[in-house]
Design a protein that fits this description.
The complex is a heterotrimer of chains A (about 325), B (about 280) and C (about 280). Chain A has about 325 residues and is of the alpha/beta class. Chain A is built from 15 helices and twelve strands. The radius of gyration of chain A is 20 Å and the shape is globular. Chain C contains 14 helices and no strands. The chains are: A alpha/beta (about 325), B mainly alpha (about 280), C mainly alpha (about 280).
Chain lengths: ~325, ~280, ~280
């Protein structure tokens, strides 16, 4: 708590000093619609970016944040939430905005380096201190009597990564047998007592409501929980294999242009790739693209075997249609 | 003094009385007292300094300001409507009156979630007139107008429901007398009707305001949850709660709980001192 | 006077008072724009589905499970409230005890306390590490994040209704009837069953129906304390939100229409109950 509250206090002080500086500089605002667990990341990043932009252009910038489940945010943007930039959990949610609202071009993902994902992350397990149920890897999650916490794949991006990570493991363990993978994931979801709508809700359920033996979590969310509640309460367990998550970012062209924010919005996303941006990303336990930033931030995340969604599932569009749309495999599996 | 009857008592024995009182007190304790106590205990669990920081930080201040703004629009709007509706309904006789009253009551029985949903379906990007609004750069949902609309919807019946029975009970004789003495319509309203309904009106405003400041479900659907911008106090409480910041969540919640207690006290005073000038039945 | 009468349309009685046109016009305009048109937009959206699709959405197993929970929990909560509400009304009207004024004032708390605040407070109380939850956990009872938690939240928000409907009836109840019954040898319990209960029944049922209707649509206080587990602890309003988040606008609207229909039926029943209640009071 202390670390993040000083950080928070710092952000407030920075914010206030920016507000207080008397100048004729223009006051600009930008809205970033993001997914659930990035609250702390963008709180720090926004303050750093505001400072950078002030130095660069002389203008003050306030970045406003909106957080919810990634799918929900995508829907809100389509329905008129005027976000200049979206920073969501997975590419499909931004594809949907491009397809339904046509407010950014379909090839948005090629506009920034690394498929527009300034960092990667993966899916790990958070267990209670001492690992009382002896959770070491994916097969331990389907054992009877193990309660698994994960959010609802219908609304949460993180939950979809969780689901696909489990599926990918099962495929691998069963030599690519899809029926076996479906059985495995089905069994896993039988062990899920609560399905929150966003990753943050699940974190609360596991850490504060005390439900479940293992929480399938974003890596960053798992480490954040250690920071917030103390390493004496929880442990992070790395599975033998997991999925490479690439949460992408994009300018919503139509909104940014309407707000005359295109320059600001583009720079805001570009700066995520800068040394400072990458260092902040590393400090919040995401995996930066820039390895130097990771070592500078003194946060070294363990190396594990990661597979990509393109390799195993043939991309997000296919995975979404097969698994998560109405009457998809998830609907078939999840019938308690 | 009537002689003591032993065979057929008209009151319960002291033992039963005490038992019933205790049972009722336990019910009140668990469902009403403890929740309020827990809000304040948790709010101050990190000390007063933390409490002060939580309620004065910029996002909390923005949430407080937005909540006050929304109430400042929604309550007067519903006062104007409530007075107009009760004037039409109570002072005149017309066909379809009870149907009209039912329609006014409707928002009470509609789920707050639906109250938000209807505006998204109407004004959202994929909504009925969303594309038109977008072309003309008018934003309603995920901005202040949407929050105001949703709040107006859920607080819609409060003033009218208080005034209609009150004005019906008072009848139209006084107004008719004023008119026959040559008073104009507005004079009649300001000098005769308004003084008669002022306490009832205040009562309605009080409840309307409490609900307007505290509405969660409807506002949550249309807010967009932009920190420091479209977050009302109840939504800010939820956000803090989701950021593991329980003391701060309860600190902001304690302001709302305090408002609720003030509302109850003011309501109690009104009922006690001006009960005869309020509507005959409450809720 | 004659002018007024001459201008008065057939569907309303003439009156010397002015302002009917203005006040009625304003009322209808406001009602139309705020309530009726947006509600119509929802119905229109649901009407975009074919009849079979509509039935498919509203009778989907997950939706059925949500109705079961919402109706079931609302019913149980209303039952708790009718029992304890009548008791509390009785105690407040008939007895004197220290702190009575405090209780009297506090009963309306659920009307004034924002539902989100109630939600986090009840969750803090009834979670396994909460003040009450700890004790219940020892007894093996889990409240928070189970359907029982939903009931607790709904008891809270429906608490004032029965108390407030029964209280005035009890106050007006003629004590002489009770005395007469007693002098005829009726026991206190018999008097209660045959004299008092029938008198307060319509009011108590009205309160029950009001509490039930309010509970059915409740969202804020429930989502914090319910586990929100599909098929198990997911209430109907939450299902609507989830449908919306999944771009299923028509599905959200369809379930919304189903809820709206239920609300209408309840409103109608409440009106009937109130009429019955009034005629009952008139008889005394």
């Amino acid at each position: 708590m202390t670390l993040s509250s000083t950080r928070r206090a710092l952000a407030i002080v920075l914010g206030l000093s920016v507000l207080a500086s008397p100048s004729l500089a223009a006051q600009r605002t930008l809205l970033n619609a993001s997914y659930d667990p990035t609250r702390e990341l963008y709180q720090e990043y926004n303050a750093a970016f505001a400072k950078y932009w002030k130095g660069k252009s002389g203008d003050d910038v306030t970045v406003r944040q909106s957080h919810a489940g990634s799918g929900g945010q995508s829907r809100a943007v389509i329905d008129g939430l005027r976000a200049d930039v979206v920073t969501l959990a997975l590419a499909y949610d931004i594809d949907t905005i491009a397809a339904r609202a046509k407010s950014l071009p379909p090839e948005w993902q090629s506009r920034l380096p690394n498929n527009s994902a300034p960092y990667t992350s993966t899916i790990v397990f958070l267990v209670r201190k001492g690992n009382p149920k002896g959770i070491k890897d994916w097969p331990d999650l389907v054992k009877p009597g193990v309660a698994v916490i994960t959010p609802n794949p219908k609304t949460s991006g993180g939950a979809r990564w969780n689901y696909l990570a489990a599926w990918g493991y099962a495929l691998k363990a069963n030599n690519g047998n899809a029926a076996a993978a479906e059985r495995f994931v089905g069994q896993l979801y039988k062990n899920v007592p609560v399905l929150d709508s966003g990753a943050r809700g699940s974190t609360i359920t596991f850490t504060q409501r005390g439900l479940g033996d293992v929480y399938i979590a974003w890596e960053n969310e798992a480490y954040l929980a250690l920071d917030e509640f103390g390493a004496d309460k929880f442990e992070v367990v790395m599975p033998s294999v997991s999925i490479l998550a690439e949460p992408p970012v994009a300018v919503v062209d139509r909104v940014a242009e309407r707000n005359k924010n295109r320059d600001l919005a583009e720079e805001y996303l570009k700066y995520l790739y800068s040394a400072e941006g990458q260092a902040i990303i590393a400090r919040h336990y995401y995996r930066p693209r820039d390895a130097a930033a990771a070592s500078a931030a003194k946060v070294q995340l363990p190396d594990i075997e990661l597979f990509t969604i393109d390799e195993v599932f043939g991309g997000w569009k296919k995975a979404q249609a097969e698994h998560f749309n109405d009457k998809g495999i998830f609907d078939k599996i999840y019938k308690p | 003094m009537a002689p003591k009857r032993t065979f057929a008592p008209i009151a319960e024995s002291p033992k039963i009385r005490i038992g019933l009182v205790l049972l009722s007190l336990i019910y009140i304790l668990f469902f009403l007292v403890l929740p309020v106590v827990v809000v304040f205990t948790e709010a101050f669990s990190r000390g007063f300094a933390h409490y002060l920081e939580a309620v004065t930080e910029p996002d909390a201040q923005a949430a407080i300001k937005l909540t006050l703004l929304v109430a400042a629009i929604a309550v007067p709007a519903n006062v104007v409507f409530g007075v107009a509706a009760s004037w039409a309904i109570a002072k005149f006789d017309f066909v379809g009156k009870s149907f009209l009253i039912t329609l006014i009551d409707l928002p009470f029985s509609v789920s707050p979630v639906i109250s938000g949903l209807i505006y998204v379906l109407m004004f959202g990007g994929q909504g009925l007139i969303g594309p038109w609004l977008d072309e003309h750069d008018i934003q309603i949902v995920y901005a202040v107008p949407g929050i105001v609309l949703a709040t107006v919807f859920v607080t819609f019946p409060f003033v009218a429901r208080e005034l209609i029975p009150l004005m019906q009970e008072q009848g139209a004789e006084e107004e008719e007398a004023a008119r026959s003495l040559g008073a104009s319509g507005w004079q009649t309203f300001w000098r005769v009707t308004l003084p008669n309904i002022k306490w009832g009106l205040l009562y309605g405003v009080l409840l309307c305001n409490a609900r307007a400041m505290g509405e969660f479900g409807a506002v949550s659907v249309v807010s967009g949850h932009i920190r420091g911008f479209t977050n009302t106090m109840p939504l800010h409480v939820e956000i803090l709660y989701n950021e593991y910041n329980l003391p701060a969540a309860f600190a902001v919640a304690s302001l709302l709980a305090f408002l609720a207690l003030v509302t109850l006290v003011a309501k109690g005073i009104l009922e006690l001192r001006y009960g005869h000038e309020l509507a005959p039945v409450h809720h | 006077m004659t002018v007024v009468a001459a201008r008065t349309p057939f569907w309303r009685k003439p009156s010397v008072l002015p302002g009917f046109g203005l006040s009625m016009g304003l009322t209808l305009l406001y009602l139309g724009f705020i309530v009726l048109i947006p509600l119509a937009a929802m119905i229109l959206r649901a009407a975009g589905l074919s009849w079979d699709e509509f039935v498919g959405v509203v009778t989907d197993p997950r939706a059925l499970a949500a109705y079961r929970l919402s109706f079931g929990a609302s019913f149980v909560a209303a039952v708790v409230n009718i029992v304890f509400g009548v008791l509390t009304a009785w105690v407040l009207v008939r007895y004197e005890f220290p702190g009575k004024r405090f209780v009297e004032g506090l009963v309306d708390l659920p009307f004034a306390l924002p539902t989100a605040v109630a939600g986090i407070a009840l969750t803090a109380l009834f979670a396994e590490n909460g003040w009450v939850g700890q004790i219940l956990a020892k007894a093996g009872l889990k409240v928070a994040f189970t359907p029982l938690g939903v009931v607790i939240a709904l008891v809270f928000i429906g608490l004032p209704f029965v108390v407030r409907t029964v209280q005035p009836v009890l106050q007006d109840l003629d004590k002489e009837v009770e005395e007469a019954a007693a002098s005829l040898g009726a026991s206190r319990l018999q008097t209660f069953r045959h004299i008092i209960l029938p008198a307060i029944l319509p009011a108590a049922l009205t309160g029950f129906a009001l509490a039930f209707a309010r509970a059915l649509g409740e969202y804020g206080s429930v989502i914090f304390i319910a586990g929100n587990l599909p098929m198990k602890s997911e209430i109907v309003p939450l299902l609507i939100i989830i449908k919306l988040e999944q771009f299923d606008y028509a599905g959200a609207a369809a379930i919304g229409v189903a809820m709206l229909t239920a609300a209408f039926v309840l409103l109608f029943m409440i009106n009937l109950l109130q009429r019955w209640s009034r005629s009952r009071i008139g008889a005394f």
